[in-house]
Design a protein that fits this description.
The chain is α+β, with helices and mostly antiparallel strands. It contains three helices and seven strands, in the order ββαβαβαβββ. Strands 4-7-6-5 form a four-stranded mixed beta sheet. The chain is elongated.
């Protein structure tokens, strides 16, 4: 029996996948629990149209993310931190500070999408990574300076 998954099902497929399963599994488990719906001709047409529209939106989002990545690479960023006379930072620089810095420069990036590979405890130049979309990451350099 052909069905269209309405949500991700482990070991079977992801949402909007068209799969073939045994009739009993579909009728007694997947359809009553709203994990799937029967793949009628009209449902297949609706699915095809939805996938076409989603592909168009995804292409547009991908293009915007790539443009944003290029703009971020071109900018220079400086983070101010309170330091001792030897250059050690009191505390450390974290993703919240980087997100605020990016926001001041005009880039609204969620702090959860920013990752720093090492702990920042001294003045210097470091690299952070922003995951904009699946498959699109941008590395940017920032300098930690003494306030």
């Amino acid at each position: 029996m052909e069905i269209i998954l309405t949500q991700d099902v482990a070991n079977l497929g992801e949402k909007d996948d068209l799969v073939t399963v045994k009739t009993g599994y579909a009728v007694n488990y997947l359809i009553p629990k709203s994990y799937a719906k029967q793949a009628t001709e009209s449902a297949k047409k609706v699915l095809a149209e939805n996938q076409r529209q989603q592909a168009h939106k995804a292409a547009k989002l991908r293009k915007e993310a790539e443009e944003l990545a290029e703009k971020i690479k071109l900018k220079t960023f400086k983070v101010g931190a309170k330091t001792s006379t030897t250059g050690k930072i009191f505390g450390s620089v974290n993703t919240i500070q980087l997100a605020e810095l990016l926001a001041k420069k005009g880039f609204e990036i969620d702090r959860k999408k920013i990752s720093i590979s090492q702990e920042i405890k001294e003045v210097g130049t470091y690299t952070a990574t922003i995951k904009l979309l699946k498959g699109i990451k941008v590395d940017f350099d920032f300098e930690v300076i003494s306030e």
